[in-house]
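Continuing the series of single-chain predictions for the mutant panel. This is the parent chain; the variants come on the following pages.
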Amino acid sequence: MGLPSIGTIINYIVIGLFVLYMGQVTLTMYELFNPEPCVPSKGMRCILPYQKAESKFDLSVYTSTVASKNVRETDLMLAHRQKEFDLADELEM
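Parent structure:
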């Protein structure tokens, strides 16, 4: 039984690097969609959401008959407006 050829060795190295790359991509995708919770007490700086859970917003829905990318404000018609729109509640029109 002889030594494997140089082509076989290179092939195994390329396959091993590809498997490592796919593992790294899988780990990155997992961390992207499942981030660790931020704990400010550990000295980490956390990015907080702009709106708070109890914040109230105004919701305005507009429509237009102009089928163009260059719609002007004068082309818009107010279809629905809801004061103090809560993000957690369901919208009923």
